[in-house]
Amino acid sequence: MRKSLNTSKWYENAWAALIFFTRVPFYRLYSPPRDSYRAVVEFWPLAGWFTASVMAGTLYFGSWLFPHSVAVALAILARLLLTGALHEDGLADFCDGFGGGNDRQRILDIMKDSRIGTYGVLGLLMYGLLLYLALSSLPVELATLTILCADPYAKMLGGQVVQMMPYARTEQEAKARVVYRKISIPAAVGLAVQGLLPVALLFYLAPNLRGQWEIILFVPCLTMYVLYRIIWSKLRGYTGDCCGAIFLIVELSLYLTMSVLCK
Q1: pLDDT at position 14, please?
Q2: Amino acid 79: pLDDT
Q3: DSSP string, 111-160
Q4: Are 231 and 161 spatial neighbours (Cβ–Cβ below 8 Å)?
């Protein structure tokens, strides 16, 4: 009975993650209880398998019809449509808040403002440009494999912020009216498996990269730690916007690393 209950909980939480992090109407098939949304970060990389597959598939099959650069642009657009630019919205708010705020409360107020400012615009432009150029610099097959690996791996690393610091606001002040719960040991193991399995796939299908696995995995970890230190020093806690920004920037660091290694 207990095993069946636990299986049901995992199913509900995973389903909630797909609903929360994508714009596909999964809720029409099944609507998990509200409490499941507190655990969506534990299945963030699993949602990343889905978004990465769509993005990578668009790039790979798009390159059969279009030049590589056009296929890359279509792949980026596909994920934007799939996620509703959820994380990009977080990145814009993050850049506005940390760029224009001088103290904790001011940063939080700016990040909660739905309007986008100069720092947010510049942050999105630079992020989009670097993402496009990094993926365009990789051969189609390698770019496809890297997307399948980078999305879940970056989401696994981004999910660590929930464990490393408290939520910066109250639950009532949260945009989604949900505060993520702390990750238990079994959930942490599941999170690691979700994030690392695609990495193993990358090294299996691209054996020439095995000798450089340390730098491929280390740079995103270092990027996440630097962002964590910045957020902690300013806010002493995270927000949903911080999680989205961490994911995008960490993922971008892996693409840039691959671009350097393949130059």
Answers
A1: 92
A2: 98
A3: HH-SS--HHHHHHHHHHHHHHHHHHHTS-HHHHHHHHHHHHHHHHHHHTT
A4: yes
